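Supplementary Methods, section 5.1.

A reviewer requested that the exact input to the structure prediction be made available. We therefore reproduce it here, unchanged from the version used in the analyses.
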Amino acid sequence: MQLRYAFRLDPTPGQCNALARAFGCARVVYNDAIAARERARAAGETFHTATVLSKTLITEAKKTRERRWLGDVSAVVLQQSLRDAESAYRNFFASLMGARKGARVGAPRLKSRKDNRQSVRFTVNARWKITRSAKLLLPKIGEVKVRWSRTLPTTPSSVTVIKDAAGRYFASFVIETDPEQDRTRFSEPDSDTAVGIDLGLTHFAVLSDGTKIASPRFLRRAEKKLKKAQRELSRKQKGSRNRAKARLKVARAYAKVTDARREFHHQLSTQLIRVNQAVAVEDLAVSGLARTKLAKSVHDAGWSQFLHMLEYKAQRYGRTFVRIGRFEPTSQVCSTCGHREGPKPLEVREWTCPACGTLHDRDHNAAKNIKAAGLAVSVCGAQVRPERVPAPRGEAGSHGIRTGARASQRHSTGPEGQNP
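The structure derived from this sequence is encoded token-by-token as follows.
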């Protein structure tokens, strides 16, 4: 599988100017491609292919006085910018046709030079390389110092240089991992080792074995510092250098919170994947919960990022990852006898099963039910909750009560006996 390895870069002031030039040229080519396609759409013409756009927007544009500065950067950077525009249109059309999963994707928009995040991509054709002195050699930029935190498992196929909102530079390498080598990296756990995870806000996660993982609440702990930085930013005059410095200070404060949360998610997900053969979680409607009064706490927890890490690490290291349907009544069913008690308000953290008399912790009981449902799916491949099936054409809508042999024959006939 393909993964990304990101490392911090320390470019010199001259290299920062060269990277800014590359960011600007890539942005201009991207915007020219969007404008050319919009003009073709308005004129009722067919969209130009990437080959035609490459010839007109890059090769011929370099010969003009208005765009001759495009030759100051690597041609691969400009070609990749055209590919990004083409991919944006492809995703937009696929979303319109319903062929793309996820939320609806809007039409591609023009990029601004004031965007806080900028990036350029170098492929193998750009002839970039890692030198013997462990520096990253980029065409028309030079040898950039890299903070290597780990070794690359294989030779990267491409590298993307990113400048984030906090003014930091990163090199993101695309790595093709070896499946056999990945599965031998962690020792194989027992075949019956499985865990169910119930995510929450009071505790970040409660495991089926009773372990409770406290919620770090990185955003809540940094609120005082963030409020002070935001207040200083609001008092600066727009367009001034002091306002730019204040904006950078706010961005760095938020970046610190984001990095701490990501590190926590990485460590916890790696630990769970290392010691368990199967991991079951509940498929939460995070986008819906993020529109409630608990929005700040939901965003602070970062459930979606954590579940994404669990999923790709399970796939990489040969573990089983199961998502339980969000409508499964994990908090209503007794994990001991299976009795369903019914819905309970959130303030009820403990309850006693009326059938067997077992005292349950709400989150621990839900985690055990998630584990049981996950094992049912992973072992037999059955759905935890039956999928929706279309109603037979003869039974759709309201009907009167059927009596006699015709009614009994109607109900005893299976799907094969239904009339079209």
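The chain has twelve helices and 14 strands. These observations are discussed further in the main text.
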